[in-house]
Amino acid sequence: MAVRAVRGATTADNNTREDILDAAAETVKEIIDRNGINTEDITDITFTVTKDLTKAFPAAAVRRMGITDVPLLDMAAPFVEGSLEKCIRVIVRFNTEKKNSEIHHVYLKGAKVLRPDITAKETYISVAVDGPAGAGKSSVSKAVAKDLGYVYIDTGAMYRSVALYAIQNGIDCKTDTDKLIKKLDDIRIEIKYEDGAQHIYLNGSDVSKAIREEKVSVGASDVAVIPEVRKKLVSLQQNMAKTANVIMDGRDICSYVLPNAQVKIFLTASVEKRAERRYRELTEKGVSCDFEKIKSDIEYRDKNDSERKTAPLKCAPDAVLLDTSDMTFEQSAEAVKALIKKIGD
Ligand code: DC
User: Fold this and answer.
1) Distance CA 258, CA 262 (A)
2) Which domain holds residue 297?
């Protein structure tokens, strides 16, 4: 066990108590989430604020989050001409087994400019799209990627492939966790592009169709709660984003897989609308299905995906929320493209 420090910085929108506390809370929360910190392991938290933030002590945000027994300190940042305005910086120190190289520092909003190294490395553009099952993430992302010449990466397909492997090998996705973990090294997942379409291969076989079956959908949600499965797939996903401009969709892309993505979107729609879309899609493909079963599967997955401990589904604080309940497919794709076109404005 060692004490390690995580660095965070952000900017407050305005010099108001609420904006200062919101910005401070968001940064501390991201530090905790991205580093999987247990609040009991935090030894102390220090904030600095620039002199233009006078309406609140940011440390009050930590108390408001329910962290009541950690020593806190607020300090004034030195005034340096031309430096970032309305800036809140934070150091969270905590006990951990992690190495320094495994610590994720957090730079939000205007404070991203404090880390030119982060931006400099991002020669490729990453667009992160999260959202619940059936919100249209994959069809919208696929269409936008095709239009803009980006590579579309469907991370759900990877979780589905792990579930399919389990099903094919008589491993129960929900209960045989240890058995599946032992087999993880035997699972080889590859994404290939053939005639412009993405195909997913599981140990050399094209499983693009097989992973779409309803039992695989539910299995995917079950295997996705297993931290070891996530670790393996997240590292694959991060490596893919280093090689091209990508649109990646999933549940934890904005907050965890690509925290430095230039565009972050949370694409959602009501449960009813999502079930309707899925029903229509399957019926059009000639797959016989039951609307109520589809709806209850979606509800099951929503609950499973958002209540799990590791990387739960949620709208990241710096993601744009896009509710497509009342949008057509074309309108949703246009809205996503408009957000991508805003990069660099
Ligand atoms: O997007 P999808 O329906 O193909 O995803 C299948 C399941 O995989 C979903 O219920 C949750 C899980 N998943 C995840 O946990 N994290 C991702 N990045 C993508 C999918």
Assistant:
1) 9
2) 126-344
